Amino acid sequence: MNIKSLLLGSAAALIAVSGARAADAVVVAEPEPAEYVKICDVYGAGYFYIPGTETCLRIGGYVRYDIGVGDAGSLDGVNHVPDHMDDGTHSTYYKNTRFTLKTWTGQETELGTLKTYTETRFNYGNSSGDYLNQNASSADDWQGRNKSLSLRYAWIQLGGLRVGKDDTAFDTFIGYAGSVIQDTLVPYGGQESNVVQYYFDAGNGFSAVVSLEEGAGRVGTIDSYVPHVVGGLKYKGDWGAITGVVAYDSNYEEVAGKVRLDVKATDELSLFIMGGYGTDDNLNDNAGNAIDASGRGFYKQWGGNWAVWGGGTYKFNEKTSFNTQISYDDWKNLGIAANVAYTVVPGFTITAEVDYLNAGKFGDADFNNWTKATKKSNIGGILRFQRSF
């Protein structure tokens, strides 16, 4: 009996101790469920929801490497740079490496879609031009160096209202020009500006824009509270589009306009033609200033009153396309550009382009130091490598 009592007592003691220890045990909380990034397909491919919000974000950009050769002033060549052995001047490549970071956001609200877009560019390389006649501040621009860091775009759009930094609607709404690298051999308008814009979508292919703009640069930036004003109308169908824009330059009280026709001739071939006309009565109001005396404002940047641009794209296959553009203005400036773009693998494209400019009246004039070196006939080219993501 004593042994049985001893065994029963030992068992009771063990149960009591185990219960006490169980009561003192630390309870480990269940882990929080992981919050995975969710795909947002409302605004297209590449968007995802920012965790904890209803905002969709897309991050992208490109890395680009350009190799340019050719005549100075008009094309991407670097001519008449000092030689390191002090035996005269030489010509060399124009080189530029660029990293561009882009962001897009989108969110649905009771007032419409809220969007943003930003694009920041980082550049390293040298600058094109002829440095025989340059002043001391720019004489070393031919040397490789870290160049501009620029906030190229940064705008907010709610419904049809857009505010921030964008290119002028004089270019964006009509579609710039051709799909060539040097599309401004004959310039077609100013670009960067702070803007307040409103876009109208009337349906059935019709749309419109009104844009109040500050402009940029010595000629373009407004010098009073009166903004530049741009308006545009567009009709777009399966066959192509027809677009018109008109701009009022408040600095010089001048008007410029462009009309563009885009035609999808076949599945492989697309064509465009664009004509521009602008007044220039007040653009020579300061003969002592080379910039103002050139007869070019922020919008009417071509020579004389009128200009025309035309060209197209032919897709040989999914990887290869041919692009060309011809441009001509009232001052007899003739620009021709053509390239072949080849997509090596998705996201990586190599483009080889040849450019020609026959400089007319503006090329012969001595408005700026750089035009002293501009030849009557100029030829050059660019080889571009670009990885987009």
Automatic annotation (TrEMBL):
Superkingdom: Bacteria
Name the UniProt record assigns to this protein: Porin
Subcellular location per the Swiss-Prot or TrEMBL entry: Cell outer membrane
GO BP of this protein: monoatomic ion transport
Primary residence: membrane
Domain notes: Consists of 16-stranded beta-barrel sheets, with large surface-exposed loops, that form a transmembrane pore at the center of each barrel. The pore is partially ocluded by a peptide loop that folds into the pore lumen.
Organism of provenance: Mesorhizobium helmanticense
Described function: Forms passive diffusion pores that allow small molecular weight hydrophilic materials across the outer membrane.
Key words, A-Z: Cell outer membrane, Ion transport, Membrane, Porin, Signal, Transmembrane, Transmembrane beta strand, Transport
Cellular component GO terms held in the UniProt record: cell outer membrane; pore complex
Any one GO molecular function term: porin activity
SUPFAM superfamilies: Porins
Signal peptide range in chain numbering: 1-22
Record's bilayer topology term: Multi-pass membrane protein
Taxonomic lineage: Bacteria, Pseudomonadati, Pseudomonadota, Alphaproteobacteria, Hyphomicrobiales
